Amino acid sequence: MTGGYTVPGTRAPMGLPEMHSRLMQLAEVIRDERGWDPVSWEIDCRPSGEYRLVLFRDAVGRVTGSGGGYEVVLDPGYRLPQPGLRQQAGTAAPAGDPERAATGFRAYLERRAAILGQAEELPPPVTVAALDEAERRIGRPLPADLRALYLIADGDGIGYRHRCLIENNAWLSLQSLVAEYTDGREWQDRPWFGWDLEWDAVVFETTPADTVRRCGGHPGWIRFATSEDGNYLAVDMDPARDGRPGQIIATGRDYDDGPVYIADSITSLLQQHLEMLEQGSYEKYEDHISLRRAACGVGTQQIIGGIPDEVPPTLQAIHVNDATGIVDLSPLTAAPGLLRLHLNRSVTADLTPVRDLPVESLRVTLDGGALTPLAGHRHLASLDLSATAPVDLTPLRTAPNLHGLDLSGAEIPDLTVLAGLANLRYLALTQRQWATLLDQGRVPPTLAAVRLAGKDVTFEDALVLASRVGLDTGDALRVDGSL
User: Fold this and answer.
1) Which of 35, 72, 275, 398 pairs with 28 at a CA distance of 20 to 30 A?
2) How far apart, in Å, are the Cα atoms of 357 and each of 105, 173, 387, 424?
3) What is the mean pLDDT of residues 419-438?
4) CA dist 136 to 142, 184, 218, 476, Å?
């Protein structure tokens, strides 16, 4: 909903609560009659009182970000592959040790009791049979050292209160651990935020590198503790090449860029906690202890603003905003792990420095430049391209992992090249570009979602595009009338 006006002599404009109530009533009617939930709709009201209402299922929806327009989802079940699934699996043995973990946990509890002046009440332990049944239900083994803790206490919660023993997180009961895993399966494979956010998303590499798979979520991650705000600690039972099964990672709501490596095991983490208490790295609040961990010192992962004089070698993402003049990308070769390079309202003339960088998400405006340096680029997954001169797309045909393109800001003389991009799943074009491509009959057959870019396009325009690219829009609801 955008805009508004008041006709002189009429009643006051509808207030937000009343508007929300009317929209909910409309949504309920459409849901009951058509089975659509949620619903996309657009209403065009004129000062005369004439209006037109168009409704359709959420396969077509408005994009509110840069460039605007509408998105059409052709394959709602398709999800872009996560880079971590291509990583080599770890083969090392677990670093945890159940006896050391149990000994360390008891020592940790004793030290906490000495600081607090009393022992902390914990739930009674679970049985070996209960642990075996939990593993059967989740379909994966638990690390031996985590099992050892559950044989001491079933989490750290009594009633509605948790002691937050592990990394200041509430340690879940075994029943809650199983429920978190079995009830949250839709978040295990990958948190999905819609095509407008996911087509050029990047998952960062962890530190140390190649320990945790570069995934937004994974079935091998078993959540066992939570900060109760959508973030979790998990044991990673399917690590990357240099990882260890049972290693501890942080994941969840605030980890859109990927998980964070915490420790190689519960055993090691408990040892760290005991050392923090002995060193005085904690805060005491009445009957509660909060550990105070020092900064990890993993280096700079992301820069927003401009290219610094000294580019940190740990840099994985950079957003260059509103730069004056032509941006020289050559300093970025000092960051061999750069994954995201976005020039926002900034221009470059030479992509050669990108050739040898593992950039997966690239957003650039080219000043008379060429895409030749991107030929054969095996990492490039998404490209948002604007240009001051016509651009030849031919070099992109040899980029094997390119799955997303936004060409709405560029003039492309030959759009038929797109038909040769075998792995393309997302494509954004202007209304004119789409018309040209459709008339030529060269729409890539592998598309899962498309975007009609432009701030002035309408829902009706999007429905026309949806129909032409293969989505059945015959049941769209249109209502004309006068208020």
Assistant:
1) 72
2) 44, 45, 21, 21
3) 96
4) 10, 17, 18, 46
Q: Are 248 and 85 in contact (CB under 8 A)?
A: no
Cα gap 414→394, rounded to integer Å: 9
Position of tokens 């078993």? Answer: 222
Residue 21 pLDDT level (bands cut at 50, 70, 90): confident
Both structure tokens of 113: 């009791």
How buried is 243 (Cβ within 10 angstroms: 0-12 exposed, 13-18 middle, 19+ buried)?
A: buried
Report how far residue 476's alpha carbon sits from residue 465's, in angstroms, rounded to the nearest whole number. Answer: 13
**What is the rounded distance in angstroms from the CA atom of residue 65 to the CA atom of residue 30?**
27
Pairing of strands 231-236, 170-171: unpaired
Q: Which of 382, 210, 207 is CA-nearest to residue 312?
A: 207
SS3 letters across 151-220: CCCCCCEECCEECCCECCEEECCHHHHHHHHHHCHHHCCCCCCCHHHHCCCCCCCCCCCCCCCCCCCCCC
Q: Note the pLDDT tens digit of each residue in 61-109.
A: 989 876 789 999 999 999 998 999 999 999 999 999 999 999 999 999 9
> What one-letter code names the amino acid at 36?
W
For residue 1, the model assigns a pLDDT of: 47
pTM > 0.70: yes or no:
yes
Nearest to 312 by CA among 328, 333, 291: 333
- Burial of 417 from C-beta contacts in 10 A (0-12 / 13-18 / 19+): middle
